[in-house]
């Protein structure tokens, strides 16, 4: 009997699994030191009264092989919201089998169904395998743009009035 990949929305009982996958992703990206999220925070973000993110798990029988987590942004140029893919992760033992592409197709279908004008995400510049994969699907790098971030002390300083 062959296994079939099933992609389904994360439920409240999946939060610990999702956080474990986030930690695996962070380890792969050499950013484990940045993971401070708690199950309670993820639960609130996904299911709380001000839920603002969505996620799916990819399962092969009873084994979780990957996930995608996203939220909506907005383009003033396009005049419509977009789908921003925050994280896409397929466990190493399951890569190269089309599961990442299946997750992206699932999200693209959601974006189209919701009338989104675009779907975007970021990739680390050293992750050549991911870059080649995304370009092979028709995604175009936005090389003229740089991502900026305020966090920690700098964010607090910016929030204070002069």
Structural account:
- This protein has 162 residues and is an alpha+beta fold.
- It has a single domain (5-159), classed as 3-Layer(aba) Sandwich (Aminopeptidase), CATH 3.40.630.30.
- 34% of the residues lie in helices and 24% in strands.
- It has 5 helices and 5 strands, in the order E-H-H-E-E-E-H-E-H-H.
- The protein has helices at residues 15-28, 39-47, 99-113, 128-136, 152-159, and strands at 5-9, 54-60, 63-75, 80-90, 119-121.
- Strands 1-2-3-4-5 form a 5-stranded mixed beta sheet, sandwiched between helices.
- The model has no long low-confidence stretch (mean pLDDT 96).
Summarize this entry quickly:
The protein has 162 residues and is of the alpha+beta class.
